[in-house]
Amino acid sequence: MASTVSPLAPKSYPDMPDLDGVRFATAEAGIKYKGRTDVLLASLDEGTAVAGVFTRSKCSSAPVDWCKSILSNGRARALLVNSGNANAFTGKKGKSAVELSAKIAARALACDPADVFLASTGVIGEPLDAEKFEDVIDELAAAEKPASWLDAAKAIMTTDTFPKVATASVDIDGETITINGMAKGAGMIAPDMATMLSFIFTDAAISPPVLQSLLSGETDDSFNSVTVDSDTSTSDTVLLFATGAAEKRGISKLDALDDPRLATVRAALGDLMQNLAQQIARDGEGARKFVEVQVEGAETDTSARTIALSIANSPLVKTAVAGEDANWGRVVMAVGKAGEPADRDKLAIWFGDVRVAVDGERDADYSEEAASAVMKEEDIVIRVDLGLGEGQARVWTCDLTKEYVAINGDYRS
Amino acid sequence: MASTVSPLAPKSYPDMPDLDGVRFATAEAGIKYKGRTDVLLASLDEGTAVAGVFTRSKCSSAPVDWCKSILSNGRARALLVNSGNANAFTGKKGKSAVELSAKIAARALACDPADVFLASTGVIGEPLDAEKFEDVIDELAAAEKPASWLDAAKAIMTTDTFPKVATASVDIDGETITINGMAKGAGMIAPDMATMLSFIFTDAAISPPVLQSLLSGETDDSFNSVTVDSDTSTSDTVLLFATGAAEKRGISKLDALDDPRLATVRAALGDLMQNLAQQIARDGEGARKFVEVQVEGAETDTSARTIALSIANSPLVKTAVAGEDANWGRVVMAVGKAGEPADRDKLAIWFGDVRVAVDGERDADYSEEAASAVMKEEDIVIRVDLGLGEGQARVWTCDLTKEYVAINGDYRS
């Protein structure tokens, strides 16, 4: 946990409404950090449905493997998360540790270990001592006052400089359902420490297949659209829980993909996930600028996305942003290296509202002064029109600063 | 041109023997830099054959397009190179500029413009004023004393901190032929300025198809195996010229791919190209450590190469090296994100000779002290065995330091 908060942090946190069917507790288990919470236990009402998306890393962590193995049951009663140790690349010990962790939580909450979801974030390659959960589990399960959403979001932080929460309300059948989410991550974006985790909860009753479809459908335009350093974590995990408590208020279960009420839920969930994803970029390690890359006019959306990520991941583009330099030549370079269809002589590039290049060369009307003014802003939009088709994409990132190098040059030691 | 020389620069330069059939001159044309040479003219004997490989960028520079358009002739009489301006993304003006440049050089050397090869390196998007060549071309063509190889290599530098040259000799039919090469680049590696260029010359007589086969065959294991920041230049150009002057000494032309004499030439050329490629990594922007990544046991060589590049390009691996931190968890991460076949539980990782991980977890015998000692060295080998097959690869890179961010945060302004 860094000592100074990112200058891009939100100026205030939203009021997070209570959400029926989920209850948090946090504790200090001393897994790595001292003097701060590092364990989060969420207990979930019986009947809670769950959906998940996970890292595509071929070296996924033991908790990721565990969650994948139980996800098809579609039900959850608990979520146990620790920061400070990723339990990744820990071989048989890692597998034993997740089994023991699930057993410890299941005993305390009187549920089946196969209903306990797990996530760990922190250093890779150190065995995780699951016995440490044993020391705090009764305290967690018996906590008299439930922890707040902010407390919960704080317990899962590593190199994050601020907790990330978001909330949304949706009217269904004249009643309101709530969606609350939290995330951590300061790099994917920057694994090994700043692994991306997000946990989202709703009190709506939603069947597992519908829940999974909602989550998977919104992931590409949110968490898969944020990058800090192009590095993919071994532990990335997004879980969406639906406690179903809203059924008691007369909102019947959403269990069909063609349920017309799903549209508003999907839209609200998508916005909330984008909000959390942007907060991750705003807390990118060493970040001083937030960057939205917009690509349009590509042959396809997929092609636009590849090009947008090529720009967002380019160290040269990111250092230019850090230096407040409207160096559009580096954007050209990043388009060119993406390997996607592009016609140099149809390319146009904007920083904010200032068009700097058009028809394959510098815009004759381009004012260096105006472009420089854009680069001095905290939030910067880089827009590229390829002039080829209708494909478009939008991704978020941050600048690459000396602080990124400092943070990552001595993280482990 | 940076003011301090990379600590990884060679302690001395090789004696570069004369090479019959090529003659250099350099000049100060004031294209961008003041008080240093920024133009190189190489005049080549009639009968010189040429081969080339170029950037795969979809936004290639005007000189790259020009070279590609004349390469099939297979013959060259001149090479004109400037630093300070890449003549990339300059639209129709860029095309006019290369045509004019070739015409200016052709008139001075009394040859065909289609026999003049061009390369430009520097800022992207600024029109190149080819008239500036006119001002110096007579001085260049009439230079009484040919410029040395080191002088030539200096004239093509941008953010490079030292000139890069290499030489090799090969005995053929009892006579010696010479191969001399130069390169520039401090990033591909870091385009837009540190564009990679290399020009290699031999006095052997080699037919264009054989020459192209030699060059293309050796590129993957040399220049395509070096990365500084994963960014691909718009201008990357490697040209190999064979003046044929050695024919007069009785070494008959190498004009068949099955000529048995080619084996030694190929080996010497490959070594020389690897030497130049490594010098580029050693002059990587802000570099303080040289890193060789070795991957073995992959399913195929191609797969090994993708994984090796994923490690070499990972900002987290590179910052760990900068911090002298034996953070092998980040190597695991980089293997995992490469998307290639990998089995976590068969993976082994070494820093230098110290095995830090084996069978998917930390090596029980691993000494943090020994690993840390390796990381303090200037040259570091990171070795990964995937345990799956026979595929292997080797790539070179450097660490990612605060100086990289500083150099690239204010290059253009």
Automatic annotation (TrEMBL), chains A, B:
Catalytic activity: N(2)-acetyl-L-ornithine + L-glutamate = N-acetyl-L-glutamate + L-ornithine; L-glutamate + acetyl-CoA = N-acetyl-L-glutamate + CoA + H(+)
InterPro entries named in the record: Arg_biosynth_ArgJ, ArgJ-like_dom_sf, ArgJ_beta_C
Pfam families to which the protein is assigned, alphabetical: ArgJ
Binding site for substrate: 158, 184, 195, 285, 408, 413
Site annotation Cleavage: residues: 194-195
Pathway noted in the entry: Amino-acid biosynthesis; L-arginine biosynthesis; L-ornithine and N-acetyl-L-glutamate from L-glutamate and N(2)-acetyl-L-ornithine (cyclic): step 1/1; Amino-acid biosynthesis; L-arginine biosynthesis; N(2)-acetyl-L-ornithine from L-glutamate: step 1/4
Top EC group: transferase
Molecular-function GO terms, alphabetical: L-glutamate N-acetyltransferase activity, acting on acetyl-L-ornithine as donor
Enzyme Commission code: 2.3.1.35, 2.3.1.1
Amino-acid biosynthesis recorded as keyword: yes
Localisation: Cytoplasm
Positions marked as site (Involved in the stabilization of negative charge on the oxyanion by the formation of the oxyanion hole): 121-122
HAMAP family hit by this protein: ArgJ
Annotated function: Catalyzes two activities which are involved in the cyclic version of arginine biosynthesis: the synthesis of N-acetylglutamate from glutamate and acetyl-CoA as the acetyl donor, and of ornithine by transacetylation between N(2)-acetylornithine and glutamate.
Name of the protein: Arginine biosynthesis bifunctional protein ArgJ
